[in-house]
Amino acid sequence: MKKSDKYNNDIIKSLYALQDTAYRDFNSKLIPNISSDLFIGVRTPDLKKLAKEMIKSGQSDSFIQNLPHKYFEENQLHAFILSEIKDFDFAIKETELFLPYINNWATCDQMSPRVFRKNLDVLYKYVCKWIKSKDVYAVRFAIKNLMQYFLDNNFDVKYADMVSNIKTDEYYINMMRAWYFATAAAKQFDLVLPYFYVGKIDEWTRKRAVQKALESFRVSDKNKEILRSLR
User: Fold this and answer.
1) Bridge partner list, 201
2) Interval 79-98: pLDDT, tens
């Protein structure tokens, strides 16, 4: 057995020691594009705790180089480890290496390197690259970053244009687009209201963006009335 194989088996044993089979069955139904056989059943707080323990012990360095992973929880561990990286350049490098292996919405959405916030100008250049990718989860990740880091005081309608101009039938991209515009409605309502008009974005995404905004406690009652008139 190769050293890397033994190491990987040790990580998998650690994951199985945290297994919750009821949670496994529940979680696998939320991510139907992955075979249920590839879920161990480890809750997110336990995965985050294990990721921090691996970082502290130095195990994380070898783990994130050992791609591809087999199990959903291994990918989640990878995402949580990257989220803890404190060096911006290293975080970007490892994100780029991992993105092609992300195969589900949960791993995509839960990978959130906090260090990204420290250099938004450089991050934006990567977002522009990812959003043009042919990979579903690279595009979804790009939209997520636009939503997370570019909807506050630094907002520009060009960011919303980037999201509205995406043309795809991919469910997991369009759901993130809807989430983006619903969040934008909470933060930049007047500037993004035109995107909720019929014809500005595809109708499937528009309707879901309106619904998500109506369900949001961050959108005012006054603005919700305007959105209801656009349904």
Assistant:
1) 198
2) 999 999 999 999 999 999 99
Domain final position from 67, 95, 118: 118
| Rg of the chain over all Cα atoms, to the nearest angstrom | 19
Tokens standing for 117? 């916030």
Helix (H) or strand (E) holding 8: helix 3-17
- In 75-91, which positions are buried (b, 16+ CB within 10 angstroms) versus exposed (e)? bbbbbbbbbbbeebeeb
Rounded-to-integer distance, Cα 27 and Cα 40, Å: 10
Coarse DSSP helix, strand, coil percentages of the chain, rounded to the nearest 5 percent: 70, 0, 30
Which two three-digit tokens encode residue 64? 């994130």
Over the stretch 19-48, which tens digit does the pLDDT of each residue have? Answer: 999 999 999 999 999 999 999 999 999 999
Domain-terminating residue out of 118, 145, 172? 118
Q: Among all chains, which residue has been given the structure tokens 């060009």?
A: 158
Same domain, 33 and 110: yes
